[in-house]
Amino acid sequence: xxxxxxxxxxxxxxxxxxxxxxxxxxxxxxxxxxxxxxxxxxxxxxxxxxxxxxxxxxxxxxxxxxxxxxxxxxxxxxxxxxxxxxxxxxxxxxxxxxxxxxxxxxxxxxxxxxxxxxxxxxxxxxxxxxxxxxxxxxxxxxxxxxxxxxxxxxxxxxxxxxxxxxxxxxxxxxxxxxxxxxxxxxxxxxxxxxxxxxxxxxxxxxxxxxxxxxxxxxxxxxxxxxxxxxxxxxxxxxxxxxxxxxxxxxxxxxxxxxxxxxxxxxxxxxxxxxxxxxxxxxxxxxxxxxxxxxxxxxxxxxxxxxxxxxxxxxxxxxxxxxxxxxxxxxxxxxxxxxxxxxxxxxxxxxxxxxxxxxxxxxxxxxxxxxxxxxxxxxxxxxxxxxxxxxxxxxxxxxxxxxxxxxxxxxxxxxxxxxxxxxxxxxxxxxxxxxxxxxxxxxxxxxxxxxxxxxxxxxxxxxxxxxxxxxxxxxxxxxxxxxxxxxxxxxxxxxxxxxxxxxxxxxxxxxxxxxxxxxxxxxxxxxxxxxxxxxxxxxxxxxxxxxxxxxxxxxxxxxxxxxxxxxxxxxxxxxxxxxxxxxxxxxxxxxxxxxxxxxxxxxxxxxxxxxxxxxxxxxxxxxxxxxxxxxxxxxxxxxxxxxxxxxxxxxxxx
Amino acid sequence: xxxxxxxxxxxxxxxxxxxxxxxxxxxxxxxxxxxxxxxxxxxxxxxxxxxxxxxxxxxxxxxxxxxxxxxxxxxxxxxxxxxxxxxxxxxxxxxxxxxxxxxxxxxxxxxxxxxxxxxxxxxxxxxxxxxxxxxxxxxxxxxxxxxxxxxxxxxxxxxxxxxxxx
Lengths: 653, 166
What we know:
The structure holds two protein chains of two kinds.
Chain A: H1 2-28, H2 31-41, E1 51-56, E2 63-68, E3 72-77, E4 99-100, E5 103-104, E6 114-118, E7 121-131, E8 136-141, E9 146-152, E10 171-175, E11 180-181, E12 196-205, E13 212-221, E14 224-230, E15 238-244, H3 253-256, E16 263-269, H4 270-278, E17 283-295, E18 300-312, E19 321-326, E20 330-335, E21 341-346, E22 352-356, H5 357-365, E23 369-373, E24 376-379, H6 381-384, E25 385-389, E26 396-401, E27 406-411, E28 416-421, E29 427-432, E30 437-441, E31 454-459, E32 475-481, E33 488-495, E34 502-506, E35 536-540, E36 543-551, E37 554-556, E38 559-564, E39 568-575, E40 584-588, E41 596-598, E42 603-608, E43 614-619, E44 632-638, E45 647-649
Parallel strand pairs in A: 13-18, 36-39, 38-44
Antiparallel strand pairs in A: 1-2, 1-34, 2-3, 4-5, 6-7, 7-8, 8-9, 9-17, 10-12, 11-12, 12-13, 14-15, 15-16, 16-19, 17-18, 20-21, 21-22, 22-25, 23-24, 26-27, 27-28, 28-29, 30-31, 31-32, 32-33, 35-36, 36-37, 38-45, 39-42, 40-41, 40-43, 43-44
Chain B: H1 2-19, H2 33-46, H3 75-88, H4 113-121, H5 123-129, H6 131-139, H7 152-164
Helix pairs in contact in B: 1-2, 3-7, 4-5, 4-7, 5-6
């Protein structure tokens, strides 16, 4: 006994020695800092994060929802890509969401989420995000965190300078990155210059329903329109777009589109555009585009087809567009919260260019033009320049703002985030990012009211930051504390796809409005079974419709006979639960589609083709109660020529 | 000692529910069945099932502390209650026959109106805190009563409908 005691004491002493040794080690390096960083991002079990962050899923096509400061992933909202987990794009209800003029497309490239605003302040009603590859804009309802609308953008290719909202969400915009023949036609690529066009689209947003409508397009010269930002406050009514390839090169753009010393920021007066539309100064062009809308009462999406679009030619609409010369191949185009400064991040420039909105208006008023391009006036660089941030870093990409008059810019090549002062243009701080940040995000940082506590750097390269996972490593974001004079790196966290851009918002603006269930009484799905007494099976030729209900923990019906090889069987499953967090899932052996995951009060449908004679099971795929394992059923499949009548039941002897 | 008794009771109920009973017929190929049936009858002699227990004082746990029933059944309210019951409850409760959960027929002679409404309105709390509700959960295979988010007015109407079941 005594010996054991002695040994224990011995171990204890060694342990203390080792610990204190560690302590002295870490305090020498970054111990104090790292421990407080840990405290800053620690959200205790059961407690909630202060902010929601919506990160674009890039080439995953989706939108991910994270908590800040913890960096915890809550949900991946399927938007442009099918998602078997949620049956998005697989069940009969959501298939129309992925319809386009090119047919049904299972994938998209999601880029720039932007939250709706009222008076230039985040209102947390909807979030918009663009699809770059097959041009589309989606709207996600922030009460359900589900994609409720996707509209295709015609005359557009590479929908990149999108999907930003004006101060009162009057419009969400979409701009083409790749110029194309408009209308599309068979012509030589070599004849690009002067013949290709870049369409800037304005989608009107219904202030009550949020529904989008392709209001008009402005047909711009054949440049690449890269990024955009609405005017704020004093510059409300304008939209600014960065351009590159003003050289109008059609091959080896890596070299050929980097020749001009300056490209342009296009300043578009959208209030003027509204006047021209009202005055009938538009052309109507035929255009076929899909408009997909999901309805929360029918729990179903429908596609309608747009057939034409109103088009404005800036050469014929004086005062509509001006070009602000901006060095060199600018990417980010960012307007500060006051609306006065327009920051152009010339990717290949040595300094950051900031234009003044006031000076721009003066130059326009005095008609001080340096020339014109395709009938669009070009202003003098010096006349509109507010200032430059000298030698800030290499490869500036994107800028956001805090609520104290500071700007934060990512530098892709020198791999850092730089903080600088608006007005004095002095650099206040720089912190390395790991590695090569593209966009950054401050909650509300592109609005009139930023919440300047955290900054998320969305990095393009991860390399050695995490355990390796083969040749493909995770995508990554980094959280900085920007509440003090110096930025402080708090956390690395992995993301899905490539996080091009993100939008953040205080949780208390969204969480209280989050929907918990769908009311059965409001269920208007054409195949809903809102009362258990109506559970049934109907045959219509080769189509068999199963009107099925679920509740913990059984299906009604759970025994079905009279189904035949060659039938097309529709499972229309209604979840009769009316309690929070009780979804049921269901799938059928051999179904050539995903499970459906049905929220309380919702109806979803999947199709199953019985191919083999026998008795085949289906079951609940989402653990719902202690008796979840018992939640199963059988379908008897008879030969095609069998004359067994349809019958069904639950709990009968 | 008391805990031990409760534990034994819970345990035996568990065994009992495991046996299942009514679904399995004589044709069952599982040999163990006869044994559990014997146990079941043995247990039955000494305890009353939760569903058969009569407790007309316990008001349960939840938002309802007092309900006044009219001398006569309010037919309009009962009709409304029947509609709500059909939509929201029949997936688990048949009016006169045990199904997933117990049948509501005659429930007013076994339970207080308050207990019934609390069970409808806040089954989670009832099952966690009310001893009788806890036992019922075990008796019905641990199948939880779903909270169907009825309003108090709707639950009251369902209660009135229960009065009509004979």
